[in-house]
Design a protein that fits this description.
Blueprint: H1 48-53, H2 61-64, H3 75-90, H4 96-100, H5 125-137, E1 142-150, H6 155-163, E2 179-187, H7 196-206, E3 223-224, E4 238-241, E5 245-252, E6 258-261, E7 274-275, E8 292-295, E9 298-301, E10 304-306, E11 311-313, E12 316-319, E13 336-337, E14 343-349, E15 352-356, H8 359-367, E16 375-376, H9 377-404, H10 425-430, H11 433-440, H12 442-458, E17 464-465, H13 470-487, E18 489-493, E19 499-503, H14 504-510, H15 522-525, H16 531-534, H17 543-551, H18 553-556, H19 571-581, H20 591-598
Parallel strand pairs: 16-17
Antiparallel strand pairs: 1-2, 3-8, 4-5, 4-8, 5-6, 6-7, 9-12, 10-11, 13-14, 14-15, 18-19
Length: 599
């Protein structure tokens, strides 16, 4: 969730969007005004940050030379990229460097060691990192957007902001109507050079989740929305969550599971592998970008072949338009409508066709290859509970690092970001409010999933396989949940260097107590409240830090991620406004108790 550094000034071409109408979540069937490109902007001067990056990796020039030996991405190149991502994903590497220095990497052994260069990526960079690395290794051109600008508010939206009935969103990652790039940068670049390692820093400093928040009906973005079918949804496809997260598809199984992995905000860790879930990756309106996106193929037109070097030079680089891409489609936003005019999906079943409003069902049915479509109810719910476990375990490395690096020992920052779900610097890398609110919501999504499975079996839906009665199913689901919360665990190292193990059951109980601030001790980061566990936490003797911890409680009680809530307060300001930011009472997250009561 990187804050976009628009000051980096490099230029290839500029396209702008003047205005687009506000679209609803499923508005693709409504007529929409077409964005109109404006005249290109003049080249911008390079900033000192860009200039200072030059020469930084001169000692790696023999490793990093990026020569163009092919002027376009062909179907074979796209397949090669998919094979590369699939191999990395299947290797189960857990850090960016492990993924590169891994025998599964087809280019293994051709990179400088970690003593010379540290490979890194966060979640927004991850798809761009993989794509640019493959392009470099194969002598292919590359292009990325820079300087994202929010599409202006509609007159109606602006009037609501002026009247005080709506809030203006200042973080471009969450812009109301999506974004457009101010420029797209060609790589290799005549000014930036052709050293992959120098270029990589610029790419990763330029990319944020806002880069993917582009209306897919336009040709402005680096990516396009593919059709929902095998071959279009493939290893290397980007999974985009408009609330500020990305992942990358590394496999599509015959039973319709889209397998995803992502990089963490600590810029080094890579997630466990998991099936795509529309509960984890939230969806939004079409103007906010596609939920699945593929990189546009790029081509250099008019390049000259240099026989001396065996490379192409010159020419004009451009990305293919939607009309030139065979598998471009917006069907993920709906391919039919319901009786009341809402967008929906027409899917094929064993007995014909039916209409569903579930994107998850549409996705899985389209990708299912194992004969007649069937959902193993218990397996489905076990996967859901594994997702809950994995999400809490994924929190461990980033939280631990804030202590290891000494951040937790520093004074607390004087002012919070305008939205705790944004920010930059230490906050961006080491805070956890976005992940924490998602984890608190996992009880709700697990219960929702269980209720839906019970309803399908109860209705006699032939697509859902279960061996016994509905009452037995409820007991089986509760047993799966109970087993997971007792067997799943995380072990953290406290400030004194001793291990502390927490079960998922305990972590759920503590979830509203877990500090998201990187300046709190690791004991508070894991929601410790007993004198025994807090004994090693230095913050209990720091009145200012404890005031921050207490003042942030209402934010830790939130169950939904709302980037429009202003949080840019000093300590005194937060204490005065805490009750306006979130619920006073902490949510009950006793998963098994809730299941027994509500299922």
């Amino acid at each position: 969730m990187k804050t976009l550094k628009t000051s980096l000034a490099v230029f290839l071409a500029v396209t702008q969007l003047s205005q687009t109408a506000q679209a609803g979540l499923f508005d693709i069937f409504k007529p929409q005004p077409k964005p109109v490109p404006t005249r290109p902007q003049p080249p911008l001067k390079e900033t000192m940050a860009t200039i200072n990056s030059k020469g930084r990796y001169q000692n790696l020039s023999q490793w990093g030379q990026w020569n163009i030996i092919s002027t376009r991405w062909t179907a074979e190149d796209e397949q090669g990229f998919s094979d590369f991502v699939q191999a990395i994903g299947r290797s189960d590497c857990r850090t960016v460097e492990d993924c590169i220095f891994n025998p599964a990497n087809p280019f293994y052994g051709g990179d400088p060691g970690p003593e010379l260069y540290k490979f890194w990526s966060d979640c927004a960079d991850w798809p761009y990192f993989l794509r640019s690395y493959y392009a470099w290794k194969n002598g292919l051109p590359f292009m990325f957007s820079q300087g994202m600008r929010a599409v202006p508010l509609t007159p109606e939206q602006q009037a609501a902001v002026d009247a005080g009935t709506a809030k203006a969103q200042t973080d471009i990652r969450y812009s109301a109507n999506g974004n457009v790039p101010l420029r797209q940068v060609r790589i290799p670049h005549p000014t930036l050079g052709s050293n992959f390692f120098e270029i990589q820093d610029i790419i990763q400093d330029s990319i944020a989740t806002s880069t993917l928040r582009v209306d897919p009906r336009t040709d402005f973005g680096d990516t396009y929305t593919p059709a929902i079918r095998h071959g279009a949804i493939r290893p290397g496809t980007i999974v985009y969550d408009p609330s500020g997260h990305t992942g990358v598809v590394y496999d599509v199984t015959d039973d319709g599971e889209v397998m995803v992995f992502d990089a963490f905000s600590d810029k080094k860790s890579v997630s466990k592998r998991r099936p795509y879930s529309s509960d984890r990756y939230t969806r939004s309106r079409i103007t906010h970008g596609g939920w699945f996106q593929n990189f546009r193929p790029v081509v250099i037109e008019g390049a000259q072949f240099d026989r001396r070097t065996g490379t192409y030079v010159g020419g004009v680089l451009r990305a293919l338009k939607n009309s030139e891409i065979a598998d471009y489609s917006t069907e993920m936003f709906g391919n039919t409508t319901t009786a009341d005019g809402k967008s929906a999906y027409l899917v094929e079943t064993a007995s014909g066709y039916k209409v569903t409003t579930s994107f998850q069902e549409f996705l899985k049915r389209r990708l299912y290859l194992n004969g007649t479509y069937s959902v193993d109810v218990l397996r489905e719910f076990k996967n859901k509970m594994t997702e809950v476990c994995d999400d809490f375990q994924a929190r461990a490395s980033g939280v631990q690092e804030a202590t290891t690096l000494g951040i937790a020992a520093q004074p607390h920052v004087a002012v919070l970001p305008n939205t705790i779900y944004g920010g930059d610097g230490v906050w961006e890398t080491h805070s956890t409010p976005g992940g924490d609110v998602r984890r608190r919501g996992l009880v709700r999504t697990a219960l929702k999933s269980a209720k839906e499975l019970v309803a399908m079996v109860k209705s006699g839906n032939p697509d859902y396989s279960y061996y016994s009665t509905v009452e037995d199913l409820k007991e089986d689901l509760i047993a799966i949940a109970e087993n997971t919360v007792k067997t799943c665990s995380v072990t953290y190292t406290n400030t004194a260097g001793r291990p502390v193990t927490l079960t998922l059951e305990e972590m759920l109980r503590r979830a509203p107590l877990m500090s998201f601030s990187p300046w709190h001790c690791i004991e508070l980061r894991w929601g410790a409240s007993s004198p025994q566990e807090l004994r090693s936490c230095p913050d209990i003797n720091d009145p200012v830090k404890m005031r921050w911890y207490k003042a942030q409680q209402t934010m830790r009680n939130q169950m939904d991620r709302d980037t429009n809530i202003f949080t840019g307060f000093t300590l005194e300001g937060l204490e005065q406004n805490a009750s306006k930011i979130g619920p006073v009472d902490a949510p009950n997250l006793n998963l098994v108790e809730i299941f027994k009561k509500e299922l």
